[in-house]
Specification:
This protein has about 450 residues and is an all-alpha fold. The chain has helices at about 15-45, 55-60, 75-100, 105-135, 150-160, 165-190, 195-215, 220-240, 245-250, 265-290, 295-305, 305-335, 345-355, 360-370, 375-400, 400-415, 435, and strands at about 10, 65, 75, 335-340. The longest helix has about 30 residues, at about 15-45.
Length: about 450
């Protein structure tokens, strides 16, 4: 109606209870995995900078596999092409869930994290390009500083013992998921040089069979899907497309609609089962054999003086902050979104700094963008330096605001009647009921659950 004022949608307020439970489960595993990832990175750095460096390189370069299938790969290659496919499978499943029944299905709530993620990928690439080409370098590594490493960021949060509110943790998770999708698109489009058409067609047919069994026939049993997944992965690798693309493709094909027989959403349940393998095994092992770079005065000097490494480091430490914070501001300024009453722009600044930790996927893209081992060493050092700078700046900001976060954390988790439902979801507060007790499908009960009381959101979808 003419003259009618449209109500602004609150973003980064209290999560709906089912969404909060899902996010808490995901981040609990990622936090543990982040600590393991930090440990693996430290071990790799120490190992590669001791007299046993030759042993590290020997183990990393050991080849094994089936040569007839073009799968005689080094240990480092197996971790980047093989184990990281598990990581991207979980990312694909999480993205599918968010798009179908999660917060990303609502344009109003999706605007802020999506714009922040897109801007958080574009601005670091632009910063890299301006720095590298301005110093006489190339655009080769433009995609390296685009990614956010959610596990590493959560590991940092665990180490400094900060009580980041659940809404900000969910925002960080969404940023990372969208970043992962962007990274896999970049890898598929820009880092595929030759295509084996027969193998690619075989991989697509395998994905079609995966979809038919899982979604149309609703066949249960891991013994059907694990062999099929290995065949799809092998054909994707043989096709010339980076094999991690197979992981995200299978994740996106998972069914999100509630399973009538099991009473749960397969995408949620499968990602719940696979996430510990991804966060606790796949990603740390990749870090162990990717982060082992020589740290010396010369290597650090090269990062600060050579165009491409400096572009990567500044893209992460500066570009990510400008991109994520700028995208968030644009979303609030030009859409009907507004921040939750408990948060301020300083909080988004801290999360933007955390987003500059681009460890895992940045290392992967660095290996693809710079095939020469000497160039890879410099780029890896730049990724480590840029991620470390982002982590330190984020830690400083988060510690300054941790008293506030502790108060919000205690309020979010207070359960005085000990019924298992936090009190904030039972307050008769009309002004905040929309962002406290409503499930993504708009249905509520007195506990803030969607109809059916499931642990996941109450809407169904494919």
């Amino acid at each position: 109606m003419p003259g009618r004022t449209r109500r602004k949608r609150i973003v980064l307020g209290h999560l709906p209870l089912p969404e909060r439970r899902f996010v808490a489960d995901a981040l609990r595993t990622e936090t543990v995995g982040g600590v393991v990832l930090l440990a693996a990175a430290v071990i790799a750095l120490v190992w590669a900078n001791t007299p046993w460096k030759g042993t590290y390189e020997a183990v990393r370069d050991v080849h094994f596999g089936v040569a007839a299938l073009d799968l005689d790969l080094s240990v480092a290659h197996w971790t980047s092409d093989g184990l990281l496919a598990i990581f991207f499978f979980v990312a694909g499943a999480e993205l599918k869930r968010e798009l179908v029944v999660g917060e990303l299905r609502h344009p109003g709530t999706a605007a802020l994290p999506v714009l922040a993620a897109i801007s958080g990928m574009a601005i670091p690439a632009l910063v890299y390009g301006l720095v590298a080409t301005g110093m006489g370098g190339t655009w080769n590594g433009w995609a390296v500083p685009m990614a956010t490493d959610i596990a590493f960021a959560l590991g940092v949060l665990a180490v400094i013992d900060t009580h980041l509110p659940s809404a900000l943790r969910a925002f960080l998770l969404t940023l990372a998921v969208v970043d992962d999708l962007g990274a896999i698109v970049v890898i598929a489009v820009f880092y595929t040089s030759t295509i084996n058409l027969a193998a690619l067609i075989g991989a697509v047919l395998g994905l079609g069979l995966f979809f038919h069994l899982h979604d149309r026939r609703q066949v249960h049993g891991w013994y059907w899907y694990l062999p099929l997944a290995l065949v799809i992965w092998g054909l994707t690798h043989a096709s010339g497309v980076h094999a991690t693309v197979a992981g995200v493709a299978m994740g996106l094909l998972l069914r999100v609609a509630e399973d009538g027989e099991q009473g749960r959403r397969p995408a949620e349940w499968i990602s719940h089962l696979v996430r510990p393998v991804s966060a606790g095994v796949a990603v740390p092992l990749f870090a162990l054999f990717a982060a082992g770079v020589s740290v010396s005065g010369d290597s650090l000097s090269n990062v600060l003086t050579e165009p491409e490494p400096l572009g990567v480091a500044l893209g992460l430490a500066v570009g990510k902050v400008l991109g994520v914070l700028g995208g968030s501001y644009l979303a609030v300024r030009f859409t009907r979104a507004r921040l939750g009453r408990d948060l301020a722009w300083a909080d988004l600044l801290a999360v933007s700094m955390l987003a500059g930790i681009g460890f895992t996927v940045s290392l992967l893209i660095g290996e693809l963008a710079y095939p020469d081992p000497a160039d890879q060493e410099q780029i890896k050092a730049a990724v480590l330096l840029g991620s470390l700078a982002s982590a330190l700046l984020a830690c400083l900001m988060l510690r300054l605001r941790n008293n506030k976060y502790r108060r919000l954390y205690e309020e979010e988790n207070r359960d005085e009647n000990a019924d298992g439902i936090p009190d904030i979801y039972q307050r008769p507060d009309p002004a905040s009921s929309r962002d406290r007790g409503r499930s993504p499908d708009g249905n509520r009960d007195r506990h803030g659950r969607g109809r059916g009381g499931s642990a996941g959101p109450g809407a169904s979808g494919n």
